Amino acid sequence: MRKIISPLLAILVVGFLAVVPVRGQSKIGDPFSVGLQPVVTSGLTAPVTLASAPDNTGRLFIVDQIGLIKILGSDGTVLSQPFLDLSSRIIPLRPGYDERGLLGLAFHPNYATNGRFFVYYNAPLRPGAPPGYDDTATLSEFHVSATDPNVADPTSERIILQIDKPQFNHNGGTILFGPDGYLYLSIGDGGGANDVGLGHVEDWYADNAGGNGQDIEQNLLGNILRIDINSGSPYGIPPDNPFVGTTGLDEIYAYGFRNPYRMSFDLGSSHSLFASDAGQNLWEEVSLVVKGGNYGWNVKEGTHCFDAENPLVPPPTCPDSAPGGVPLLDPIIEYVNTANPIGGGLGQAVVGGYIYRGALLPQLRGRYVFGDWNKGGGGGPNGSLFAATPRADGLWRMQELFVTTSPNGRLGHYVLGFGQDPSGEVYVLTTDMTGPSGSTGKVFKLIRPSGR
Description:
Elements: E1 32-44, E2 47-52, E3 60-64, E4 68-72, E5 84-85, E6 102-107, H1 111-114, E7 116-124, E8 135-144, E9 152-165, E10 175-177, E11 183-187, H2 211-214, E12 223-227, E13 252-255, E14 263-265, E15 273-277, E16 283-289, E17 300-301, E18 304-305, E19 333-336, E20 350-355, E21 368-372, E22 384-389, E23 397-403, E24 414-420, E25 426-431, E26 441-447
Parallel strand pairs: 1-23
Antiparallel strand pairs: 1-26, 2-3, 3-4, 4-5, 6-7, 7-8, 8-9, 10-11, 11-12, 12-13, 14-15, 15-16, 16-19, 17-18, 20-21, 21-22, 22-23, 24-25, 25-26
């Protein structure tokens, strides 16, 4: 989800930090205490997301990067048989570190009656793809078995959309249905670094800036897409998508992203769309996504100017709008990456979460819970957890989450993703490995601090 040398992604840190105030970074408040309840502690390799089906069964579906979807029953046990096994359809994964695999799952809003659901995974490169490319990102539809609600029909696959990717990283990976009934998909800029190289549009925007993130005409990389899977063949285009009837690819909903690995809609009345975008070297960010929004990559990294030829040194100036006057939108949350030479880094790769709407932690209600894959510095897995609160003006205020159920207040695992159940409670998905190997995957639930 970030540069090739950094591991899959995410976050969940807990503990006190000595933070260096930095211009442009979200204000850091005192740590906030939470508890973490182990929900699944065995049988998983690299759980990257968790979803619930809108069928009132109370089941939660855990997506494992290695190609499996498993069911966590309402009784708290994981069914031995996978709901769906796509391990033979995904591209072979690198055990030491890989951002490819099975990354997304979304159930149709009418799943209880139509049994339709959708997955996003990296398949081997399809015939006819450009030479030298790595894989083919695939969005597919499946149906549940007609005889067993705990098993999908593996023969029912219908490919909806495929995008050939030049490099193995920056896959995005979230698919979800919006309150408008349309299907949203996040996808990265194609991979590599700096949005340059094979498969990346030549810089055209400004000095050493442009790339797939700013291109809206030649490919779908670096975007959040929105499609109508209830019409068309294999899909339709929502008539109010921003580039319908004008220059730009019709599927694009928002653009200017590097690797929007995780995104989510607020369960509250606003239904706002949040997307985390892993930075190149210096800054991690989360944005509030609006239709037609341009989020700056690779002209900017977070709120800062970016130079693809010198990514460690932000230029003093850069454009604040795209050709035609479309503004480059700044994130609502930004923090320093540990690779940033200014110091005070909080982590290596942001992992987006959810606006908390549960009942177990009322003080978190209405706040954005998210994390970072790993703080770094050696010593093994050391992911972080954060909560962010809106401010009247400027970047949101961040607080680290101090885990009272841990001996040292920290999670002690790499963070791969988050999940949210229908009641608004939030789950954290972790591993102890830098790549999709082993069996250290776990799922935790945020609960009240111990002793309270």
